[in-house]
Amino acid sequence: VQLVESGGGMVQPGGSLRLSCAASGFTFSSYDMNWVRQAPGKGPEWVSRVVTGGGSTYYADSVKGRFTISRDNAKNTLFLQMNSLKPEDTAIYFCNANRITGMGEEFDYWGQGTQVTVSS
After folding, report:
1. What is the phi-psi region of residue 89: left when phi exceeds 0, alpha when psi lies from -120 to 50, beta otherwise?
2. Residue 72 pLDDT
3. Whole-angstrom distance, CA of residue 70 vs CA of residue 50
């Protein structure tokens, strides 16, 4: 199983970045997908979630209206479009795949993360 994030970098406040997460080794379309971030010296913060078919998305209040999560099940790829970036968005962004079966068994996979720095 692999989740490989890309697209991070340094951007000025108000700028945009698009993160990608390439998945392999599992049935991507069967998993809900999340973006989770961790700022320096802080605990993990859930950012956004998209369900298996992509029809439902959810956002933390801190990013609502600025970030858009999406997925391409044909290409096994998750995206996060980040607009109007703020210095407080600076963090390592992790891709997470999550599935709970009908029997209650949970599968949870994580990527290595990509650094996003928002600074003037």
Report:
1. alpha
2. 96
3. 7
What is 16-80 written as a DSSP string? Answer: -EEEEEEEESS-GGGSEEEEEEE-TTS-EEEEEEE-TTSS-EEE-TTTTTTEEEEEETTTTEEEE
> Distance between CA 6 and CA 26 in Å, rounded?
19
pLDDT tens track for 104-120: 999 999 999 999 999 99
How many angstroms separate the CA atoms of 9 and 108, rounded? Answer: 26
pLDDT digits (tens, 9 = 90+) for 39-74: 999 999 999 999 998 789 999 999 999 999 999 999
Q: Of 48, 43, 119, nearest to 79 (Cα)?
A: 48
